[in-house]
Amino acid sequence: MQSNTFLIHKLRKKFLAQELIEFSTDLPQSILNIEDKTRSNIFTWRGQFSPQLIENLLLSYCPRDAHILDPFAASGTVIYEAACFGLPACGCELNPAAWILTRTYQLINLPSAKRDRLIISIAERLENYFPKPKIFEYFEIDEISYAKLQNFINDLYTETDYIEKIILDAFVILLDLANHKLTTSHVHKTFYKLCQAIKNFPESEAPIASLLCDARSLPVEYYARYMLR
Ligand SMILES: C[S@@+](CC[C@H](N)C(=O)[O-])C[C@H]1O[C@@H](n2cnc3c(N)ncnc32)[C@H](O)[C@@H]1O
Question: Distance between CA 154 and CA 198 in Å, rounded?
C-alpha cells in the first residue's frame, strides 16, 4: 500500500503540473457527479462536499498561489483538500461541533513526529482512565458514566496546551453521545479512528486556520493579517 505521504506528494505534483482552465469552462458531468468514488470524507458531517469534487475544482480552477477561504466550512472538506495541495486555507463555521472538527486540520501545520507524540501522550492517559477491555469483554456492555468522562476531560484540560485541546475536543464530538452509548470500547474505537485520521493528515507549512463565527461578520482584517502575511 502507498503511504499517505507518498500520495500527498503525488497530489501536489499533479496540482502544480495540471493546467488551469477558464472559469467559464464547465467540467465534464462525470467529474461533477463523482461517478467513480475513490475517496471518502475524513469526518462524517451532513451536507459536506465530496472530497473528489473539491479536488477537481481546485485542480481545474484554482490559481497555484491562491489563499482559500471557505466561509461555510462545516467539517472542513475544502480546507483539507486545499491543505493537501499545500495551499493556505481558512474555514469559518457557525456550528461549534463542525468547527471543532475543521479545527483539527490545524495539526497539518505540525511535523508528523510531533503529532505522533501528542497522540501517544493522550492515548496513555486515556488508557489509565479507561483500561482497554480484554478481547472477550469487547462485546459486553461496559457502560461508563458521563461523570467519569467529564473528569477525564477536565483533568486533561488543566494540563494540556492548545493543540492537545484541539484533539480532545474533536474526540468528544466524534463520541457522538446523542447516538451512541458511552462504553469503554466506544471510547477506545473512537479515539483510535481519530488518531488514524490525524496520523494520515498531510504536512504543510502553508497556514491552516478555522474560525468559529458567522460568515456574515467574518473578521476579514484578522483573516488578512493571519493568512496573507
Ligand atoms: C453545506 S455545508 C458546507 C460544506 C463544506 N464547505 C465542506 O467543505 O464540506 C454548510 C455549512 O455552513 C454552515 N453555515 C450556515 N450558515 C452559516 C453562517 N452564516 N456562517 C457560518 N457558517 C454557516 C452550516 O452550519 C453548515 O455546516
Answer: 22
DSSP secondary-structure letter at 36?
S
Closest by Cα among 79, 119, 118 to 99:
79
What are 143's strand-pairing partners? 183
Domains of the chain: which residue ranges? 4-107+207-227, 111-199
Locate the DSSP E strands across the chain. Answer: 68-70, 89-93, 208-212
Ligand 1 midpoint to CA 86 (Å): 23
CA within 13 Å, CB half, 118: 24
Q: How far apart are CA 225 and CA 219, in angstroms?
A: 10
pLDDT one-digit tens code per residue, 107-141:
999 999 999 999 999 999 999 999 987 766 656 66
- What is the C-alpha separation between 49 and 73, in angstroms, rounded? 10
For the domain bounded by 4-107+207-227, which CATH number is listed?
Answer: 3.40.50.150
Q: Which of 93, 99, 223 gets mutated to test ligand 1 (max ligand atoms within 8 A of its CB)?
A: 93
